[in-house]
Amino acid sequence: MIKIVDYGMGNLRSVQKAFEKLGVPATICDRADQLADAEKMVLPGVGAFRDAISELRQKGMVEPVLAHIAAGRPLLGICLGLQLLMDVSYEDGQWEGLGVIPGKAVRFEDRAGLKVPHMGWNSLEVAGRQPLLEGLPAEAHFYFVHSYYVVPEDETVIAARTDYGEQFVSVIARGNLFATQFHPEKSQRVGLKLLQNFAEL
Fold it and tell me: Which of 68, 118, 146, 183 is catalytic?
């Protein structure tokens, strides 16, 4: 069973409906004790980093999420869910993250002709084979909406980059831990393929 972490911030129903389209059972969990037996876990997120990490801690969800990752069970972070895996975010201050992936979340620099937040469809530059990205077309486009992106210290976790005036990390992978800066649940057929790959891990 896939458990979707509900800490009050995220596109939870959209993620659940995407799995339903694939015929994959996925349950939205708003209590820490519901997460303990998750075979696979999804950590989604939309909104401010500070509020998200505060809600995760307040609801006692940090421990079961970290235990799930430490046990080597598959986890997929989506958008803010990717940024939460870092040591720190510099969104409106400095906020401590989950510390699963050494690194930081930083804001796009202001550049002429580029709007922040980055919003819309962009392709991936995939770095090597990854089970999460298997079977995707070479020019697959995914839907992004974000002002911050992650900078991991260890570049071996980078599974794909995307260009938006500069190259930024759009997918990370380490063992059974995966995370995307884009929203697969909003990315139509290619997004469903990615979620299917995750479900079949």
Answer: 183
**pLDDT at residue 170 is higher than 90:** yes
Whether 185 is a known active-site residue: answer yes
29 tagged catalytic: no
pTM for this structure? 0.96
Please say if the pLDDT value at position 8 is more than 90.
no
CA distances from 57 to 2, 7, 44, 90, 105 (A): 21, 9, 15, 18, 19
- DSSP secondary structure of 117-148: SEEEEEE-EE-S--GGGTT--TT-EEEEEESE
CATH of domain 2-199: 3.40.50.880
Strands 141-146 and 167-174: what pairing?
unpaired
Domain ranges of the chain: 2-199
What confidence tens digit (pLDDT) does each residue in 65-109 have? 999 999 999 999 999 999 999 999 999 999 999 999 999 999 999
